Amino acid sequence: MEYVGATPRLADTDPATYNLDPAEVRRRLTRQTRAIIVPHQFGLPADLDALLELGVPLIEDCAQAIGARYRGRPVGGFGAVSIVSFYATKLLTTGEGGILLSRDRRLLARLRDRREYDERRRPTVRYNYKLTDFQAALGRSQLRRLPAMLARRTAIADRYRREWRGLPVRLPAPDARRTHAYHRFVISVPGAARTMARRLSRLGVTARPPVFQPIHMTLKLDGFPGATHAFRHALSVPLYPALTLREEARVIRAVQRVLT
Q1: Topology given in CATH for the domain delimited by 2-135
Q2: φ, ψ for residue 172, nearest 5 deg
Q3: Pick from 55, 40, 58, 145: nearest CA to 101
Q4: What's this model's pTM, rounded to 2 decimal places?
Q5: CATH superfamily of the domain spanning 146-259
Q6: Cα angle at 145 between 143 and 147, to 5 degrees?
Q7: pLDDT digits over 174-211, tens only?
């Protein structure tokens, strides 16, 4: 935002979904608000119906949610602009880089013009934001595997949900409107997440809070109880397509042992 001189205004999260709370967004809107950046956190689509009702253009951040769906439609198709990261830890990777999506042809033409600086007649600020051919080839190969990788993530999530039903923990809840991509499987534990992470580590399972530190804490701001609660209690447990059945079972037993 600082690149373009914009002033960000933070809004709190819904502690049940870890996504933006539309009521909080509405409360913090001003006449100068030009866009709402909407991350689909950990692979779960945000409440797009409520956010679209606010009448402000959405910038969908699909870095953790490529392949997720909202009311049967892929996320990334609701905002004025959508972005997807292809970093190594994302659902689909090219190692680095990403993609920008929009139906606005004029906007896309402006962005393509700024993507690279070479052989331009009109002098203006441009960048060198190009994806290499090698990265593109890797991305294309990953794209063919994406449905199978998402199906594997869903299968692991379903097993976790079955095995941990009844434990004193809040699990990602199924929602008829939203198809979760399960970039992460984030549970909310009754005690401190870091304490549980240490206990799981002693059992051979690596788990960690899914966010290093909420931005409001970095900026030393108050008034964000949802994000603060999530930071204290949210824990991301292992879930990725290469996880073996034996490893799944180990994660399941470890969480059961720590919480019973």
Answers
A1: Aspartate Aminotransferase; domain 2 (3.40.640)
A2: -60, 120
A3: 58
A4: 0.91
A5: Aspartate Aminotransferase, domain 1 (3.90.1150.10)
A6: 90
A7: 788 999 999 999 999 999 999 999 999 999 999 999 99
